[in-house]
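Budget justification aside, the reviewers requested a transparent look at the raw inputs and outputs of the sequence design task funded under Objective 1. We therefore reproduce one unedited record. The lines immediately below are the structure tokens for a 125-residue chain.
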């Protein structure tokens, strides 16, 4: 196997949770501020799919949400890390492994994400 093939193989087999950054104080604060948002998933229709900040979520049970996909971008991984803490704090089971796939960031979102990197954080209405 060539070195490039080995690198691709490592990238493919790397767990999504291994890619998540450790949250700093600001990230933790943002995650805690969004606990109500995470708790809002309780009782949502089973099978409903939501997309927020490059992260695709699906309600799989009354108190269980699954991450289906995350865009391959540092902003999206940071957002997923904050969502993980928000769901955990809200008492909602949040499934990442082995369900989540890493998808490429669409070209139109790459431009938007570049400017959002400066204003990192989950913003949910």
């Amino acid at each position: 196997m060539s070195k490039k093939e080995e690198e691709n193989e490592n990238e493919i087999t790397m767990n999504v949770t291994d890619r998540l950054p450790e949250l700093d104080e600001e990230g933790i604060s943002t995650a805690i501020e969004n606990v109500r948002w995470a708790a809002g998933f309780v009782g949502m229709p089973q099978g409903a799919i939501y997309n927020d900040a490059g992260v695709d979520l699906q309600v799989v049970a009354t108190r269980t949400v699954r991450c289906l996909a995350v865009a391959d971008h540092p902003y999206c991984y940071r957002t997923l890390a904050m969502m993980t803490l928000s769901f955990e704090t809200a008492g909602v089971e949040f499934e990442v492994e082995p369900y989540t796939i890493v998808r490429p960031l669409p070209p139109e979102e790459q431009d938007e994400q570049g400017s959002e990197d400066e204003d990192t954080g989950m913003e949910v209405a």
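DSSP finds six helices and five strands in the chain. The longest strand covers residues 64-71. Computational costs for records of this kind are itemized in the attached budget.
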